[in-house]
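User: I'll paste a sequence; please echo it back and then give the predicted structure.

Assistant: Echoing your sequence first, then the prediction.
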Amino acid sequence: MIKKYDFLIIGGGVAGMSYALKVSKSGKGRIALVCKTTLDEANTAKAQGGIASVTDLMVDNFEKHIQDTIIAGDYISDPEAVEQVVKGGPAGIRDLLSWGVNFDKKDNGEFDLHREGGHSEFRILHHADDTGFEIQRGLMEAVRKDPNIEVLENHFAVEIITQHHLGIRVTRRNTDIECFGAYILNPETAKIDTYLSRVTLIATGGTGAVYATTTNPNIATGDGIAMVYRAKGKVRDMEFVQFHPTALYNPAERHPAYLITEAMRGYGGILRLPDGKEFMQKYDDRLSLAPRDIVARAIDNEMKIHGLEHVCLDVTHKDPEETKHHFPNIYAKCLSIGIDITKQYIPVAPCAHYMCGGIKVDLNAQSSIRRLYAVGECSCTGLHGGNRLASNSLIEAVVYADAAARHSVAEIDNYTFNEKIPEWNDNGTMSNEEKVLIAQDAREVNQIMSTYVGIVRSDLRLHRAWERLDLLYEETEHLFKRVKPTKDICELRNMINVGYLITRQALERKESRGLHYTIDYPKHALDK
């Protein structure tokens, strides 16, 4: 089946929905918003801490936020991207408010701002400790009310369509690659339909599910990044995987792990060993409020030194009622596993959280493939550099969704539908035995990435990961070519592609920088 939409949006988090609402106002045509599960299951909804923006000009300013971002990014952020996001932040907040998103306020009506690691000022807007959920709720309501936006839930994008599908040879040296839409799996018919578009936006979120333990939902398999890479688009900075320092240690819930927001450390939480001793003074003068890469490595090192499976976060010295007021969901979650955070330490350990790299885009969110845009965690704007500053991701998605909308609306009349695209050849079958193999291979990817491509790396570990991923790649591609595609095998292909990209780009960086730390190159290249 062939379908036509002027705007095809793949992904339904804050990035995809913000873009959809923006382009809807243009009246430039039909909009399809495709998400592989339901609209409410996105990384956005898992974001607890908040969204960063300069709002209190009495004590804060753009220059402070810019400097904090560049410092956290280990001085390799793109200055233009940083300036665009920081200065566009207040307008992005106004957009969210206009779409019905609520942020906590003080009695005097001002925003109740939090401070998180790496920030020099209180500038984090939040909604209790479930900010992402509130943003997702507000945007979902706005999207579902918009008659111009057709939401297609439980539809899985298999590949983006380029000249390759017309029989034209496409390589990474091509500068004229063009996107004509995407092949999308319909769950009701089990068929892959052809979606032709004039403009396509990738907003598929992150890659955390390639690791054994992650705060991301299971759907975060890096689909958009993998599809663009296979289409010969530019992907960069994949070595910079952010491991959140403080996920709740609960062996019964590893995928996804429950996040203990960084705002809890901004609130005054102290990292300790289980015996009560502090340890962050050994690693950074900012103690528990140091940037995430430093805190995650410190915790990882302490766990290895002492043979621990976790360290602890202590808020028992804070007022119990205030703690419950600020962090009601964390309080309830911990209480459900027998921990009263007002009286007991919270067991925490690092786990995969955020991808700073992704599909390379410019200031208009354009990828290297014409007519293809990327926004949100799947994109690499250059904002984060070597390490994301806490709560910068949500505002980046809103600001770049606006930039993508303005640019694509201005350009869309120059694009037409490509009627020559062939339909997908779906010959093949899938046996139960093969499904078992796919599940086992996905677990193997998780184990490879967590063991060899984690917080601390070495060339030996990375080469070992590469070799094992290469074997899985050959096996999976052979299987994919002879079976009828399903969501499971497509996700496995994407996980392997993403794992390969993280590993390869980690090997290419011959220094320790930001989130990429290797024992073979323990210093910046510039320090040698």
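The chain has 14 helices and 18 strands. The CA atoms of residues 198 and 416 lie 6 Å apart.
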